[in-house]
Specification:
Elements (H helix, E strand, L loop, with lengths): L6 H10 L6 H9 L5 E3 L24 E3 L5 E5 L8 H13 L6 E5 L26 H28 L7 E3 L2 E4 L4 E4 H9 L28 H5 L15 E7 L6 E6 L1 H4 L4 E7 L2 E6 L2 H9 L2 E5 L8 H12 L5 E6 L2 H6 L3 E9 L11 E6 L4 E5 L4 H12 L6 E5 L15 H12 L6 E4 L2 H6 L7 E9 L5 E9 L16 H4 L3 H4 L4 E7 L15 H18 L4 H7 L5 H14 L11 E10 L2 E12 L2 E12 L6 H20 L5 E2 L2 E2 L17 E6 L17 H13 L10 H9 L1
Helix pairs in contact: 3-4, 4-5, 11-12, 16-20
Length: 743
Amino acid sequence: MDFRNSESWTAARRRAAAPGMTRRQFVKVTTVAGAGLTLGIVLPGCSPKSGGIVARSGIVMPFVHIDPDDTVTVICKHLEAGQGVWTGLTAIVAEELDAAWSQMHVADAPAKVPMYGNLAFNPKGLVQGTGGSTSVANSWMQLRQAGATARTMLVRAAAKRWHVAPENITVKEGVVSHPASGRKASFGELADGAARMPVPPHVKLKDPDQFTLIGRRDLPRLDARDKSEGKERYAIDVMLPGMMTAVVLRSPRFGGKVKSFDASKAKAVQGVVDVVEIPSGVAVVGRDTWSAKKGRDLLAVSWDDSTAEKRGTAQLVEDFRRLASSKEALTAAERGNVDTALEHAQKRIEADFEFPYLAHAPMETLTAVCRLSQDACEIWAGCQFQTVDQANAAKVTGLKPHQVSINTLAAGGTFGRRANFESDYIVEVASIAKATGGRYPVRLIWTREDDVQHGKYRPLNLHRIAAGVSREGKVAYRQRVVGQSIMAGAPWGGPKGVDPSAVEGNAAEEYDLEQVSITWSDPKAGIPVLWWRSVGHTHMAFSKEVIIDELAEAAGQDPVAFRLALLTGHPRQAGVLKLAAEKAGWDKPFPRGKGRGRGVAVHHSFNTAVAQVAEVTISGNDIRVDRVVCAVDCGIAVTPEIIEAQMQSAIGYGLSAALWGAITLTEGRVDQTNFDNYRVARINEMPKVEVYIVPSTAAPTGVGEPGTPPIAPAVANAVRAATGIRIRRLPFDLAAARREQRA
């Protein structure tokens, strides 16, 4: 497969075309694009013969391509789901290359490992995927080296052409110059010659104080114009000759199977062309979405619920509570003698925290297109786990993974939903294509109701905590966590002990505690669970930061000072806490007034530290969040404005869950259907958010998720400061919390 013939490359070339370019000029540019310089870092398993970087003849799908027309295209191995990786990763290359931002473009990488593997997921690059806030962090050195190597080869090509020493040549904004003679050349003019240069085994990288693009606040996003003008292509925009559209009727209970079905009425709908059974249910295929949906509404299906989950939320919570009282638990962390310390504590707090299932609810519901032939399967989707999706599609179609090609398109959000071990929506579209004999390409569309009622959810969790503080200010902390394992569904068999994603961000990790015990139990429940923006940190940060705040109050200490005393071994957390407190004016009297309160929380996740101060106003049982001050330490800020946007996004996402979000079940069936009863924050409910980034020269760390964990506890602590009401069950319900506190 020639990467330059792919749809992603075509999209990149469209972005490269200057406004006003004629069709004839565009054809001429793309015709000569076969030449040029193409570079990529060789990962384990790729050809090692060129010392790490090879020209296009060695690797056909590399990281950087410089065309004769002066366009520099960065091949992005990570999904762009609105988090800004197209821009961030391209900026890394452009910085070391000394390119002009106007000549930089981006294209999505195909599914290919180890070339495009996520080194944070697997050091050998055997898994390609996006998640865990790793995109920039795992690509940082890889792309810097690619950019610096390309620059070195361009300089050497110019030196050879001009018969001058390479060290006397400069590069600035895409122009290679020899100041002494006044000669200049563009990247495009030198690309052919550079491709013939020997690849340098070592290149010098810039010092951070030399950066001109990295850290620039006004760097335009590469996807902004296309998305603003409706030109960006998502899976729903893919149109293939003869393509049909499918929707699936799935069991209303998780684990239910098709017993029998009558498709006669569905097939009578004009526009319906096929009705087929697939492993997850019954698919109705039509010439358009409306016909397929009308046909699905008329299906008569009998379901086999013999192995389905039939419990409702209330029963599940009671079962979780019983498990929390049992001795069945695995130890995640233990230091000192917690029981003795709690017995001698001056102040002691005991509490149960409840966290509901949560849907991901991205704005773009799951959509994928599949074209299947006897020896090939091609998929278009906003894929988050390309390697896993490729393997699962191959399995269901009876092909080999290398016979499955994936065209990764932009996704309208995901929050983890597209990264699941079963590749559910990819398997569904491939299954439909197989069941219909590959006679036509198939586009699968999940409706919003499908997304909410048949998804994979942030696990229901119960935390039982006993904590105390001594006269000397020492904290003892015991926590029992009951929550489903996400990793249990991993194809390699899941964790052999404690699932790290179930207990990550616990108090033993986050604070200097000498007396601490964290245990975990995995309840058996048939509700499919999956990582949700910041995964286990979403619930761990809440219970931890609420309890720590209550301990500070019990000890008669300021919440910020109390935390700082427990963070002497965590300088980054202490740093963001001080910064957030300073910018929020924590040391100044807070104009409380009636129903006014202020709260704080700090948390470390995905190698990034975030602290937030929330200001709220309480009116009756209504909570209005007025202002959030957020401080973040994420290493070098590659794209500061995108980092700020991600913090704002994460705060809005976390607020939606804290104030309204809950997936509940009645007799195993999800109660919620759409945004009318699965509430998210409206624009008028979004607080004023101020984001402050800690200056750093350390390598970049995660950004997409770390802003979510602190917001709910910061708001809960602010509510308690305003009203004295303790919130220990999400979503917030002040009326219920008042009743429980009185009881």
